[in-house]
Amino acid sequence: MEIKKLTILGKSDATITMIFDNLESLNLFPEIDIINNLNLEIEKPVANPKFNFQLFNSLQGNTISAFQLGVIQVKSKLKVFENFGIDEEKFYTLIHKSACISSTSVLGNGCLVNSLVSVAAHTAIGNFVSINRNASVGHHTTINDFVTINPGSQIAGNVTIGRATQIGMGAIVIDGISIGENSVIGAGSLVTKDIPANVMAYGSPAKIIKEI
Fold it and tell me: For this protein, what is any one GO molecular function term (predicted)?
């Protein structure tokens, strides 16, 4: 799919760099507007001379633009999406060329899938899911909206991850596990039992540390 214009909503330098990397891997070089609505200091992200982009504090006249979220933390994604109120169907899912996604798996709108990610067969991924580099997702897994999976995480088969949950860097989730919505799994954790909603869990094996 050719993209002539991409509007990035919200501004995280790391996330915008990922978006640029994904676009370049696909040989896509659209005109880019970056909209900062989180009251962050306006600074240009890491320069990439192959892209023509502009920074704004408010949404411009982008009726023909595709959209992508410029933040990757769960709370930031929710805040930016709610602030703008743009229909989710207008958001573009951006998958790095090196990612391996099964043809039997389905991704929603506004996802960001970075380099060397692997998604196995018959997996359902919701809207605004971020899967960072070198993460793997097993077969028949369900990942709900606004989930963030950090680098190097390994999600086994038949796993369910609830809405707006964050999986820390290098975490491992074994087969058949269910993790509730709005929860956080700490970096390097080994999840061997179901985790309820609205908690932080950490360790090997992962244990609930606190409610959130």
Answer: acyltransferase activity
Domain range annotation of the chain: 5-90, 94-211
pTM, entire model: 0.93
In which order are the strands placed within the sheet that holds 5-9? 53-56, 31-35, 5-9, 66-69
* pLDDT tens per residue, range 130-156: 999 999 999 999 999 999 999 999 999
Task: Report which secondary-structure segment, H or E, holds 166.
Answer: strand 166-167
Catalytic residues: 139
Torsion of CA 36, 79, 165, 210, to 10 degrees: 110
First to last CA, the chain: 40
> Cα separation of 203 and 20, whole Å?
34
Q: Which of 122, 128, 154, 162 is nearest to 141 (CA)?
A: 122
CATH of domain 94-211: 2.160.10.10
DSSP notation for 72-116: -SHHHHHHHHHHH---GGGBPPEE-TT-EE-TT-EE-TT-EE-TT
Type of residue numbered 118: S
